[in-house]
Amino acid sequence: MAKVGRPRKIDSPEHLLELFKSYKLWVKENPRYKYNLNQRTGDMVAEPLECPLTMEGFEVYCFNKFDLTVHHYIKNTEGAYEEFCPISTHIKREIRQDQINGGLVGQYNANLTARLNGLTEKTENTIVTEQPLFNFDSLKKND
To answer: For the chain, what is the mean pLDDT?
Structure first.
């Protein structure tokens, strides 16, 4: 039985992995810049900042550069992209690993990295009110 619908733009999991490798290379070769004032010369000095890998960045990169929407391949929409699951899992873990390691060494904002990856410390506070054993108000009235 023939498949119905549009042909896939990403024909194999290996193609998706090649797109991700291309994205990683592009991110690391294209830093963002933070401008600081040099106190001695009064000039603005550009400080390159390495950007973290993000899933959103990968999706935008693929769309802008190759006119590809990779969201469905990563999310396995309606189970139609089952063969892409191992590569998708690898991509998600590599992005998470880059963010966590960058946060741990102070390269990226540690609080934001922890929040994005669900690593925030959660504390639970429970307030318990107890019924008193003796009603001291009624004892005072009887005196």
So the answer is: 86
pLDDT in tens, 66-112: 999 999 999 998 888 999 999 999 999 999 999 888 888 888 888 88
Mind listing the domains of the chain with CATH numbers? 13-142 (1.10.132.80)
Beta-bridge partner residues of 37: 44
Q: Kindly report the pTM of this predicted structure.
A: 0.73
Identify which of 105, 119, 2, 11 has the alpha carbon closest to the alpha carbon of residue 66.
11
